Amino acid sequence: MVDEQVESILSAGLQLLKEVGCEGFSIQKVSEQAALSESTVLLYFKNKHVLLDKLFEDFINRYFTYLQAYQKPSRQSGKAALSSLLFYILKYRENSGNSDLFKEFWASANHHRLGRLAYDQYYRELYAQLYTHLQTIAPVGCAVEQLQIAVSIVLPFIEGYSITRSTLPISILQLTDQLANCLAPLLFKTG
What we know:
This protein is an all-alpha fold. It is elongated, with a radius of gyration of 19 Å. The chain is built from nine helices and no strands.
């Protein structure tokens, strides 16, 4: 019963966040969407920020599971492998529901300290995952500094993509190819 109520609250909260964003998000509206009393929702989540933090945690865990599942195609190397990775990452953000949720969670995180700390941790973990993926693509001996610079370019790019994707005049395939063109000289330079 408890697990069902929590799942109902989380599902309703995520749906409400997609529909009305952070501005329209409230415990009252979540309780209505979940067909539960406000006191029941408050029993599990003491306020809307705690609920938003839990929704963000679950959302990010799904995203990291997705990123960890990436496998470099065995026959690809160099720029082709880099394009494949970038496409894989941006494809997740291409989904309008995911893109909208990234924006809403970011907006929410900026309004309370714990949310900001959670987002900072998310960025540290995302940095580490991107570094690991780029390291598997880069040639043996690629300098740590080269990888750090590449990740420092890719991370803000993919975060910004969530906001700008619908206004960009080129396809995701063209975009990943052009980004790979920019990063390839950094990662694959010799000597």
